[in-house]
Amino acid sequence: MATDYSAMGFGADLPMSGAELPAPATLLRAFREPVTADRLDREVLQAAHELAQCHEERLYAQQNAHAPEATPGRVAQCSQVLETIDARRAQLVDRIDDWVAAHIAHRNGASLHTETLGSVIDRMAAKWVAAQQALGMPPRTARAGKNGDGRARRHSGTPNGDGPPTRNDEEAARRGADVTGYDVSGPNGEGRNGDGNARHGVDREAHLQWYRLAELTDGYRDLITEVAQHRRRLPVW
Length: 237
Fold this sequence. Notes:
It is a single chain. 52% of the residues lie in helices and 2% in strands. The chain is built from seven helices and two strands; from the N terminus they run H-H-H-E-H-H-H-H-E. It has a two-stranded parallel sheet with strand order 1-2. Helix 1 packs across helix 6 (168-175), helix 2 packs antiparallel against helix 3 and helix 6 (168-175) crosses helix 7.
């Protein structure tokens, strides 16, 4: 059900907890790292982290379903897994939207955004996972999966992207292809290595996915800025 702001003034009738919407860099870090700090927006970040996990599990299930050796039984099982994941995503989106309704004040007459915050974060989480995959990183579900006998696999080393959180997440997303070493300024728009040789298609895909993530990140930054300035309000469906 949508929250009706029509009878509300400048947020006076909403609970004012001092909470703010997470900054882009904070949100991107939450996609890859569990939230441990005691923050007012912790519930949003925890849901964002779990949404990223859902999209990783979703990607892993899709890969299993489309594997050449996939049997009809496995395809059916993967389909059931996808339904379960999508149901959990819907719950997490609702959790974020409920938090917004309870903590973020909106001005009467402010422009209504076309998406809820939960839906925006869900799309960003999906694109973040796609960008990670384009860099050649397997989903964490695969890295922490099981062997054929059901035992958990062990892995050595630290996968890229799982280290200490830094502002590099937002910077990499903003700059898009820079994380891949892909140079978009080459002749005729082709990417090149330092030795001048054209990079392979994987770099083109990585550049595209990170560029799209950068666009979503910029859009999120604009959205939370307008909400903070009471020029835009978020629907809660």
